[in-house]
Amino acid sequence: MSRLCGGIFTSHVPGIGGAIAKGLQQDPYWKPFFDGFDPVHKWLAAEKPDVAVVFYNDHGLNFFLDKMPTFAIGAAPEYRHEDEGWGIAFERPYPGSPDLSWHIIGQVVESEFDPVMCQSMLVDHAVAVPFELCWPGDAPFTTKLVPIAINTVQHPLPSPKRCFELGKAVGRAIESFDSDEKVVVFGTGGLSHQLEGERAGHINVDYDKFCLRNLAPDPEALLQHDTLDIVELAGSQGVEILNWIAARGAMRGSVRELSSNYHVPISNTAAATVLLENRTTVSA
């Protein structure tokens, strides 16, 4: 069976892509954030995961307000990044893992979720920025992608508990997939930020640190707030923590934090990067 070896949780701010494109990784404004990826790079080099299952939110590239699925799972042989107007040229295609995608889809439907199944799908900065952060350079990606989009835009949004349960279903699917591949899960987005309205620029350091403190040892602590509570606490875009909650739900083994980095602000966002190891798996 395949093995879920760990989880990477990180911000996907478009400005990060701009910093990469301009070579600003050592700039004083950006360096504290990019330094958080040193342990991630070392871990990826050692583990060499075959597939990344990425929980993220689409920003109007595949889905818009007139058609917004609560959950969507990609089942394409390849994914490409499309610039949504931010001027970020991520040209390397992302190879897909259709067999694992369809296995996950089948398993989550058996768990009474109803995802949109996407045999053709583009990805935006919510996938592209984390991939570029984790595997910098120009070499083709060797880690395959299974993208899982969660609605964090159009209300009503899924509850934290619902996202956590989705993650658990995905974790069971990964563990039951007939393959010797190693899988890493990603939760992308956040942390606290709001880009519009009277609260534009809102950052809640206390809530962010609450999430970081509990992500590994007690993820269910993050379920005590409903979705509207999170919007109030973390901002209208801070609700992207739902992606982190889903990814953490997929990690059903003995979870240990290997590194954690928090930096405020980049592009009016509280940015963070967390690396978790999934040391053993558990039975269904």
Automatic annotation (TrEMBL):
Pfam families: LigB (PF02900). SUPFAM superfamilies: LigB-like. Residues 7-269 form the Extradiol ring-cleavage dioxygenase class III enzyme subunit B domain. The keyword Ligase does not apply. One of its GO terms (molecular function) is dioxygenase activity. It comes from the Bacteria. Keywords: Dioxygenase, Oxidoreductase. This is Gallate dioxygenase.
